[in-house]
Amino acid sequence: MTFHEFPLSDLAFRAKVEGRRVRVDGLTAGFAGGVVSGHAEVDDLGGNAWLGFDGNLVGAQLGETIRIMEEFSARRAGLSPPPQSRFQQRIAAGRLHLDLSAEGPLRDTHAFLGMGNLQITGAELGEINLLGILSTLLRPTLLNHSTLQLDTARANFSVEGSQIVFSEVRLNGPRAAIDANGRYRLDTKTVDFMTRVHPFE
User: Fold this and answer.
1) Distance (Å, rounded) from C-alpha 125 to C-alpha 144?
2) What digits encode the pLDDT tens for the residues 66-112?
């Protein structure tokens, strides 16, 4: 099924309606091979629908998650979805775990405020383009790509309207680690990050 064109499966929930307020509890649904659970409340008092929710996503396939989100964003913008990139194919086997609490106007997802954290496991993250030209400079040295293997990521973030602010990002692998912080803009799909590399951790 879809909800506002967003794909879900095996949806179940309890709802209580009080006038223009709707409370949804015990919500579970399938998404990208994982399970979403949580609760939400929509308040339409005054004619301005307001949504607040707490939810978590467990075990979603990372590649499928990215594909669904790109297709959803493209449909809302009246555009054709972009083709799957080599990076998406490489990380497709990874699993995503996400916790998110946020609230904002129901009809404007770029005006929400909230907090969350995420974890990615089992993905080939070694070629994430966070290092810029440093990646090119390191390849002929002992710090080549095979050394900078990264397969796990954790992050804490806040949702601040049209941007997601990452206060802490940590990418780990058997012989390397990257610490980072920065922000991602939802409207322009641009990033601004500062990273610190630990090549022999």
Assistant:
1) 14
2) 888 888 888 877 888 888 777 777 788 899 999 999 999 988 878 99
List, in order, residues 6 or more apart from 172 with CB less than 8 Å away.
Answer: 150, 151, 152, 153, 154, 201
CA 35 – CA 39 distance, rounded (Å): 14
Please provide the DSSP assignment of the chain as one string: -EETTEE-EEEEEEEEEETTEEEEEEEEEEETTEEEEEEEEEE-GGG--EEEEEEEEEEEEHHHHHHHHHHHHHHHHT-PPPPPPHHHHHHTT-EEEEEEEEEEETT-GGG-EEEEEEEEES---TT-TTSTHHHHHHTTSSS-TTTS---EEEEEEEEETTEEEEEEEEEE-SS-EEEEEEEEETTTTEEEEEEEEETT-
